[in-house]
Amino acid sequence: MSEAVPTMRRILLIVGGGIAAYKSLELVRLLKKAGHETRAILTGAGAEFVTPLSLAALTGHPVRQGLFHPDDETTMGHIELSRWADLVVVAPATAGLIAKAANGMADDLASTTLLATDKRVLLAPAMNVRMWLHPAVQANVERLKGFDGLHGVAVVGPDDGEMACGEYGPGRMAEPAAILEAIEGLLAGAAGRPLTGRRAVVTAGPTFEPIDPVRGLTNRSSGKQGYAIAAALAELGAEVTLVTGPTALSIPTGVTGVAVEAAVQMQAAVRDALPADIAVLSAAVADWRVDGVASGKIKKGPGGPPTLALIENPDILAGVAAPGPMRPKLVIGFAAETSDLEANARAKLSRKGCDWIVGNDVSDDVFGSDGNTVMLVTRDGAETWPRQSKTAIARRLATRIAEHLAD
Ligand code: C5P
């Protein structure tokens, strides 16, 4: 069963005139992959660089180009369009568009929309380096950033680099992936910090089960997804304890890290982090540990290799999810599967007694990669999320958690 993904957001993209406009097409593609809906306004100058047809095909909606088009105004008036959006993004933002916005000028569809919107605006400036560094442009950008509350615009980029005109310096539009990150950050911020006052425990990474003082059994979990979830929960205001096996990552800002090695240590650290409202157990806990860990290094000898006796590790997730006064309100587990994702995830949901399972399709490129394809399985349904960055998945999951706890 599938249901609509309520974390989808509506982005109004204003494409200004500049060679970087072609990168906006890629941005639309990334927004779609992240599950967001985009409508586009193309300025007259923008239409010199990309066609309305390309933008319409990628957004799946007609592209708005003028202020006085009767068809457009009867389907969705320009004021309504400016309010429809959850976020307005100007990419590329030219010196001209920035100047108009900074001075409250409204003489075309793009500038009128920027004045009429009641949502945050993100600018991705792109222009020649001399233009960008001109005090008039810098003053306009500072003025826009400094407006109070919702009216204060956010800016991503520009990047340093070689420009289409052959000069070098700041002025290149930020890369689409960086613009997407900025968008996700603003969307999360727009929702406020709904998890303020909530406590969360997150597990991440592999466990390391010792054989002797120098050897052990482990797995290839990078911990990236769990770290991103801890960061996303903290961004929404939660007090987060991240219990982590050995990884190469640093503890995200605002998160309390507890480093462990073996599953039994992870279990004890998770218990210490309770009570909590939320538990997201994403660690790849080893199923077995070595029975009778050698106190000294096992030597190579004439008797051949040693035989390792294994015993089962405690199931940390099942323990946390078991009914009792310490059970968090929302317990979320992970399931890595290569087939029958939904059925297997659902079976795991009941076996472990947790509330949600994030099913991971590991037939895709997951381990150590920055992207992931997941299915969220709850007791009421299942949703497949399109392949997106682990950060985007984490933010989406954190938003869903906040929505669930607010109900
Ligand atoms: O049983 P399986 O390992 O497939 O279950 C995966 C889920 O259970 C993950 O959320 C993982 O963190 C958790 N788990 C656990 N303790 C274990 C084994 C798995 O918390 N010993």
Write a structural description:
The protein is an alpha/beta fold and 407 residues long. The chain has 2 domains: 10-190, Flavin prenyltransferase-like (Rossmann fold, 3-Layer(aba) Sandwich), CATH 3.40.50; 199-406, CoaB-like (Rossmann fold, 3-Layer(aba) Sandwich). Helices cover 34% and strands 23% of the residues. The chain contains 14 helices and 19 strands. It has helices spanning 21-33, 52-59, 70-75, 78-84, 95-102, 109-116, 129-133, 135-146, 176-190, 224-235, 263-273, 316-321, 341-352, 390-406, and strands at residues 10-15, 37-42, 87-93, 121-125, 154-155, 159-162, 168-172, 199-204, 209-210, 216-217, 239-244, 255-259, 278-281, 288-290, 310-312, 330-337, 356-361, 371-377, 382-389. The strands form 5 sheets. Strands 12-11-8-13-16-17-18-19 form an 8-stranded mixed beta sheet, with helices on both faces. A 5-stranded parallel beta sheet has the order 2-1-3-4-5, with helices on both faces. A hairpin with a 5-residue loop joins strand 6 (159-162) and strand 7. The radius of gyration is 25 Å and the shape is elongated. Residues 1-6 have low confidence and may be disordered. The structure holds cytidine-5'-monophosphate.
- Whole-angstrom Rg: 25 Å
Number of strands: 19
Q: Low-confidence stretches at least 5 residues in length (pLDDT < 50)?
A: 1-6
How much helix is in the residues?
A: 25-40%
How many structural domains can be distinguished in the coordinates? 2
Main sheet properties: 8 strands, mixed
Q: Structural class per helix/strand content?
A: alpha/beta
Overall average pLDDT: 91
Sequence of strands across the biggest β-sheet: 12-11-8-13-16-17-18-19
Gap between N and C termini, in Å? 22 Å
Text of the CATH class of the largest domain: Alpha Beta
CATH architecture verdict of the largest domain:
3-Layer(aba) Sandwich
Overall shape = elongated
* Name given to the CATH homologous superfamily of the largest domain: CoaB-like
